[in-house]
From TrEMBL:
The gene is pyrD. Belongs to the dihydroorotate dehydrogenase family. Type 1 subfamily. Catalyzes the conversion of dihydroorotate to orotate with NAD(+) as electron acceptor. This is Dihydroorotate dehydrogenase. It comes from Methanocella conradii (strain DSM 24694 / JCM 17849 / CGMCC 1.5162 / HZ254). It comes from the Archaea. Its EC number is 1.3.-.-. Keywords: Cytoplasm, Flavoprotein, FMN, Oxidoreductase, Pyrimidine biosynthesis. PANTHER family: DIHYDROPYRIMIDINE DEHYDROGENASE [NADP(+)] (PTHR43073:SF2). Binds 1 FMN per subunit.
Length: 306
């Protein structure tokens, strides 16, 4: 079954995308992920200056997923440019995740990393002072940053949203008003964990962001709300580890899905999600497009009957 999809201004051979932050710091690792079946890849978030990130421990495996506070470690756009060149040989769209403290920094990074197939604006990291969700919880800032990057590049601009807000649709609308071609939902959920022998918070940064299966229902709800509220496509991310998870996100309204934490269990996840999705569509005699937003149509149909 054909899995080619148009998502947020890009054409993907299949709707699975490597999420930002995982295996995204070198061109070689991005190429390797593409060779394992990802329809597109997103880089680690890249900024103006190099950063070491937060002190260790910065990533912990829990029963229900992972909690991280990496702290935006990255080599800066100047150093990353050569990695992007390598990644571009991957044969799939390469999306540059970028961050900044303000419009000018976002614009500088986007302009300093030419050649990306699209830019994903990180306004949603939950634990980096002055960056991420500190901007991404303010609709005016999200709109301004989106507009600034949109005016500086001639490829699609996606905006990755934080779930750590009362109303994610208000932020999604701000991105749309700024000219975003898609929103990506969701980044990690604010979280922490404590060592009960010592009483110390375990992460070097004290708190961080939760990813993996625990956040899947949160992400599905965010995608569902955004699909209803916006005119631009939604890319789903959060706890997807198999084809059934991907179907759930598509039904909620995602045009494509990003996979992050599940990559730690093996790069086969991209091919196995595509294969499972294809088998599912064949069994149901449906096309991929029929799945996107299906739950909304089912709910409306039921409401109509009452
Ligand atoms: O680097 C990180 O600590 C990080 C980032 Br940029 C992000 O967007 N989300 C996250 O959970 N961690």
């Amino acid at each position: 079954m054909r899995l080619t999809v148009e998502a947020g201004g890009l054409t993907l051979q299949n709707p699975t995308i490597l999420a930002a932050g995982i295996l995204g710091t070198t061109g070689a690792s991005l190429k390797r992920v593409a060779s394992m079946g990802a329809g597109a890849v997103v880089t680690k978030s890249i900024g103006v200056e190099p950063r070491y990130g937060h002190p260790n421990p910065s990533m912990i495996k829990l029963e229900c997923g992972y909690i991280n506070a990496m702290g935006l470690p990255n080599p800066s756009y100047r150093e990353f440019l050569q990695e992007l060149e390598v990644a571009r040989q991957a044969g799939v769209p390469v999306i540059a995740s970028i961050f900044g403290a303000n419009e000018a920094e976002f614009r500088e990074v986007a302009e300093g990393l030419p050649g990306a197939s699209a830019y994903e604006l990180n306004v949603s990291c939950p634990h980096a002072k002055g960056y991420g969700m500190q901007l991404g919880t303010d609709p005016a800032l999200v709109e301004a940053v989106t507009r600034a990057v949109k005016g500086a590049v001639d490829v699609p601009v996606w905006v990755k949203l934080t779930p750590n807000v009362t109303d994610i649709t208000a932020i999604g609308r701000a991105a749309q008003d700024g000219g975003a071609d898609a929103v990506v939902a969701i980044n990690t959920v604010k979280a922490m964990t404590i060592d009960i022998d010592s009483g110390y918070p375990i992460l070097g940064n004290i708190s961080g962001g939760l990813s993996g299966p625990a956040i899947k229902p949160i992400a599905v709800k965010c995608v569902y709300e955004l699909y209803e509220a916006l005119d631009i496509p939604v890319i789903g991310v959060g706890g997807i580890s198999n084809w059934a998870d991907a179907v759930e996100f598509l039904m909620a309204g995602a045009s494509a899905v990003e996979i992050g934490s599940a990559v730690y269990d093996g790069l086969e996840v991209f091919a196995s999600v595509s294969m499972g999705l294809s088998d599912y569509l064949e069994r149901k005699n449906m096309k991929l497009e029929d799945l996107v937003g299906l739950s909304h149509r089912v709910v409306k149909h039921e409401a109509h009957k009452c």
